[in-house]
Amino acid sequence: MNTPTQNSAYQAAGVDIDAQERGLAEVKRLAKSTFTTAVLSEIGLFGGLYRPDLRGMVEPVLVASADGVGTKLRVAEMANDFSTVGRDLVNHCVNDILVQGASPIFFLDYVGAGVLDPDKLIELVRGVAAGCRDHGCALLGGETAEMPGFYRPGDYELVGFVVGLVDRPKILDGSRVRVGDRLLGLPSAGLHTNGYSLARRVLFDTLGLRLGDRLPGSSDTRSVGELLLAPHLSYYQVLQPYLGHPGLHALAHITGGGFTDNLPRVLPEGTAARVELGSWRVPELFRVLAEAGGVEAEEQLRVFNLGIGMVVVLDPAGAESLAAAIPDVEGKRPVFLGEVIPGDGRVHYHGHLSKAP
Q1: Cα–Cα dist 286/282, whole Å
Q2: How far apart are CA 8 and CA 200, in angstroms?
Q3: Which residues of 216-231 are buried (b: 16+ CB within 10 A; e: fewer)?
Q4: 335: exposed, middle or buried (C-beta count within 10 Å: 0-12, 13-18, 19+)?
Q5: Cβ-count burial 135-165 (b if 16+ within 10 Å, e if not)
Q6: How far apart are CA 175 and CA 169, in angstroms?
Q7: Closest CA to 307 of 254, 248, 231, 349
Q8: What is the Cα–Cα distance from 92 to 231, expressed in whole angstroms?
Q9: Cα–Cα distance between 177 and 104 in angstroms, integer?
Q10: Closest CA to 156 of 127, 132, 134, 129
């Protein structure tokens, strides 16, 4: 079969194999930069081979999760800056297995595009690789799909798959949670990777702002673009030293669904959560989105993280000392938000959302 003719026919259908190959050569190099001694394969095989170190574990358990960065990619496209969303993806996925007590061991990614731009592909994967190196996990493989007619030109989709490892006696599944446990909130850096469809509508359509503008009535000196592309923080480094601590009963990653849908995922039957809304300052970005978008408090608490990216459920005995040992996040101290109470498995709010000074 004549390869050049085949390639030109495929290119006429909208798929440029040569452009893919140029990008994938650098992608392979980036992936290899994350490899640990546990990786037994090279990039390019049909599957990745990984030999985990199970020494010292009583009953090793694999924990897996998949997620994406949603329409935060649209903001990256508007800013022509795809350098941060790859790391966001890894951090989000790592947080999702961290809450079950797991440490990440390897990661896979999927990049979909209408028309593949090798430079943007490399930028996306460079961020993924950087996030993997941050966590000591290998970017073991992935998939790049160019699908004209399915994705529009300029569109990109980024999805990640993480696999982690936890010793069964140390699994966090909510079963340790008791009435009286205290809820400690770790600060977020902004929207993280949720609520962007609403945020874009309010900021760009309703308020008519541009990426370089500042928030109206805000003391924050960052531009709208900088606020929207602020990183999805990983809480792994902060919390990993305490994963086996008997006083740490559960973790809840506050992503899509906010407090309302995520806290109940770690509440045993017969319990509920009481959250004091005035116990932390809600960042100004969320205030602007709520006021300009007419978003009521109930919806805010189900769409946004409102400045809290992770909730740590602590045994009340020793909660203060354990909270004091947990480091600052982005220069901000963790704050106590409420407690576990008898109840119906839901989150019950008291007080009013507190605005940032």
Answers
A1: 7
A2: 39
A3: eebeeeebbbebbbbb
A4: middle
A5: bebbbbbbebebeeeebeeeebbbbbbbbbb
A6: 12
A7: 254
A8: 10
A9: 24
A10: 127
Got the DSSP string for 134-179? HHT-EEEEEEEEE-BTTBPTT-EEEEEEEEEEEEGGG--SSTT--T
Stretch (H or E) spanning 340: strand 335-342
How far from 6 is each of 1, 9, 12, 23, CA to CA, in Å? 8, 5, 10, 20
Written as one letter, the residue type at 268 is P
Nearest Cα neighbor of 357 from 283, 305, 279, 276 is: 283
pLDDT one-digit tens code per residue, 83-125: 999 999 999 999 999 999 999 999 999 999 998 899 999 999 9
**In whole angstroms, what is the distance from residue 213 CA to residue 224 CA?**
6
pTM higher than 0.85 = yes
Distance between CA 296 and CA 197 in Å, rounded? Answer: 16
Arithmetic mean of pLDDT, 213-235: 95
The DSSP secondary-structure symbol of 230 reads -
> Which single residue is written with the structure tokens 């990745």?
48
Give the integer Cα–Cα distance in Å for 144 and 122.
Answer: 11
- CA 285 to the chain's CA centroid: 19
- With tokens 């909130």, the residue in question is 185
What six digits make up the tokens of 335?
């704050």
Q: How far apart are CA 163 and CA 140, in angstroms?
A: 10
Question: In the numeric block, which tokens belong to residue 143?
Answer: 């998939």
Percent of the residues in the chain that have a pLDDT greater than 70, as a whole number: 94
Find out whether 171 and 61 touch, Cβ atoms under 8 Å.
Answer: yes
The answer to whether 259 and 185 have CB atoms below 8 angstroms apart is: no
Residue in 135, 95, 166, 132 with CA at minimum distance from that of residue 311: 95
- Residue found under tokens 């495929």: 10
Q: Which two tokens stand for residue 249?
A: 């009963």
